[in-house]
Amino acid sequence: MLFEVRERFKLSEKFxxxxxxxxxxxxxxxYVTYKRTYARPVPDGSGRTEExxxxxxxxxxxxxxxxxxxxxxxxxxxDARKAQRSAQEMFRLMWEFKFLPxxxxxxxxxxxxxxxxxxxxxxxxxxxxxxxxxxxxSEPFCFLMDMSMLGVGxxxxxxxxxxxxxQEPKIAEYTHVVEDSKEGWVDLIRVLLDSxxxxxxxxxxxxxxxxxxxxxxxxxxxGIAPGPGPLxxxxxxxxxxLKPRIxxxxxxxxxxxxxxxxxxxxxxxxxxxxxxxxLGAPDDDAYLxxxxxxxxxxxxxAWRWASNNSVAATIGMDYSRLGTQTAKNGEPGYFWLENARxxxxxxxxxxxxxxxxxxxxPCAEQSLESYEICNLVETFPSLHDSFEEYKxxxxxxxxxxxxxxLIPTHNERTNAIxxxxxxxxxxxxxxxxxxxxxxxxxxxxWCDKGYQYICDLDRIYxxxxxxxxxxxxxxxxxxxxxxxxxxxxxxxxxxxxKYYLRAIRLDKTSPLVExxxxxGYTVEESAYGDNTWVVYFPVRHENFDRSKNDVSVWEQVENxxxxxxxxxxxxxxxxxxxxxxxxxxxxxxxELYETRLKSISxxxxxxxxxxxxxxxxxxxxxxxxxxxxLKPVDFGSVxxxxxxxxxxxxDKCEVILPEKSPETPxxxxxxxSEDTEPVPSA
Length: 682
What we know:
Layout: H1 13-16, H2 30-37, H3 52-73, H4 80-95, E1 99-100, H5 103-108, H6 112-117, E2 125-128, H7 139-148, E3 153-157, E4 171-177, H8 182-196, E5 202-207, H9 229-242, H10 252-269, E6 276-280, H11 285-288, H12 293-302, E7 308-313, H13 320-329, E8 333-336, H14 337-342, E9 359-360, E10 367-368, E11 372-379, H15 387-404, H16 412-421, E12 424-428, H17 431-438, H18 440-465, H19 481-484, E13 499-507, H20 513-518, E14 522-525, E15 532-540, H21 553-566, E16 575-578, H22 586-593, E17 599-604, E18 615-617, H23 620-628, E19 669-670
Parallel strand pairs: 2-3, 3-6, 4-5, 6-7, 7-8, 11-12, 13-19, 16-17
Antiparallel strand pairs: 1-11, 2-11, 8-17, 9-10, 13-15, 13-18, 14-15
Helix pairs in contact: 3-4, 7-8, 7-10, 8-9, 9-10, 13-22, 15-18, 17-18
C-alpha cells in the first residue's frame, strides 16, 4: 500500500439524509454524462451505479481521509469537528456545481485503488522528454505507456533525435510471458524497445496466454478487458517503425511514431481514453509533414492520428511558414518554453520560479518538468453571484487539488518532482458566460483578487500540512464532459449557438438508450451504419451573447492573453477557431502575441452538411417544443460499465480514433463496452 490509511473519514449520516433520493440541477446533458462516465458500480449486489449524492460522498470522504491520515502519519494536529464542517461545505459546493474535481477525480477519488496504487490515477496530465534516451532508451516510452494506461494524458518532445543508433535486436532463446497487468504490458514494450538499442536481448517467443480475454471485467480500475490484441498489434507496429531504420540514428519521426503506436495500443486496449501531444522543433521539416496525407497517408491512418503535434516556438522566430500550415488544418500548435519558465502570471513579471520546465501537457494548460504530472480542478464563476461567494468556492477547489498532492505515485522519478513542486491547476469553465453575466472587467477583477487569495491559502495550508507551497496554482483547462454536468461552456470557449440540438451517439447495446427514449428524447438509428443510436438533447445557453461563429479570431486570442495575465500562472489552454477569411492573420497573431502567451492552438471552422451533425442550431420555438416533451430520466439500476472519461478533454488534446469512412462526421461516441468504444473528437 503506497498510502497508509489508519482511519477513514465519514460524513455525518444526518447531513447526507438531506441529499438521499435527490438530484442536483443538471445541465441538459448532465445526468446522462454523469451516469455513463462517472457513476461507479455500487458494491451492494444490486447491479446499479451511484447516484450523484453518493459520488459526492465518496469524493469528499476520500479527500478528507487523505488529509486525516497525512496528519496522523506525521503526528500533526487534526480537529475532527472542524473537518466535518469543512467536508460538508465541500459536498454542498460540489452538489451545487460551484466547483468540480476533474473527471478522473469524480471516478477514482475515495477508492482503495488510490491508497494501494498511488495518486497517478487522480492526476490529469504529464510530460516526458526524450532528451536522455541515450542513457535509458525505453524509459520515456514506457513512462508514456504506463501513465496513459491510467488515463493520464502525456505529452513528449523529440529532443532525443540523433542520440542513439538503432540496432538489429539480438535474440535470446526464451519465452517472455506477459503478465495480465498494466505492468506486464509495459514490461514487454520495455524489453522490445531496449533490444533495438542494444540493451538486452529480444525474446524468441512471446506468450500472451495470461492476458484475460476480450470482454472480461477489470475489477480494480473498472471497465472491460480488451484481450491481448492491442498489445500484439503494438509489438508488430514497433517492428514496422524500427526495423527499416536499423543502422540509422533515431529521428524525430521515429520518436513520434513510437509514441503514437503506444498511444494507439492504449486507446484500443485501455479502459480509458487518453491523449498525446508531440512537441517538435519549428525547423524540423520531417516532423512538420508527419500528418500530410499526400506524403504520409498510410501511417497517418495507421497511428499518426494518435497525437496532436505542436512546436516549441521561440520569441523572434519567423511564423510565416508555420502559421500558413496551421491555417490549413489547425496544426501545429505553439508552446513558448521560455515564457513558461520565466513567468507565472504575466501580470507578476519575470521570476523564473519554474526554471526547470521542460514542456507542457497535451492540452497545454500546465507547465511541466520531464516526468512531472499534474492535477486540475474546475470552478464555474458564471454560477456565482458575488466575488465573496466565488472566493469561498476557491478555498475548497484549492483544498481538493492540494490534497491530491499528499499521496505519492507509483513512480519514484515522478515523486521526486511532484512532491517538490506540488503543482496544481485551479481552472475555470464558463468564462465566456461569466463575461456576459458579470462583465469582462469584473471577471478579470475576480481573477486577480482570486489568484491573490489562492496564494494566501497556499501559504496557510502548506504550513499546516508541513509541505512545500505549490510552484504554480492556476490554469485554464479546455474542459469537456465535466462542464456538461452543470451545463456551462467549456473553458474559455464560446457556445455553438443560443439554441441547438446536441447529438450524442450511444452504442446499440447501451442500457442508457431506453430510459432516454422513455423520457421523451428523440432517438434515431445512425445513418452511417455504425451500430449506434443518435440521441438529441435540446440545449439553451442562458448568458448568451455570441456564438463561436460570431467572434473574431483576434478577440479569442485577446481573451486568452488576458486570462494569462490575470489568472493563469501555469497556462491557458485555448483552441482559437477561425473562418477562412481570417486564416491569413495567424502568422501576424503569433508574432504580436508571442510575449503575452505561453501556448495556443487553432482550428478552422468548417461548414459540414452532415446528416445527424453533432451540433444543430434550432429556433427558440423548436427548443421549447423539444423540452415540453421531456420527462425526468430514470436510469434505475442501469449498470453501464462505461468508465470512460476525458481527462485532457478539449478540441485539440484528445486521442482521436479514425472513423471508418472519411465522410463520417466527428461525433462524440458513447458505447456500452470500453473495448469497442470509439474516442470522441471535439
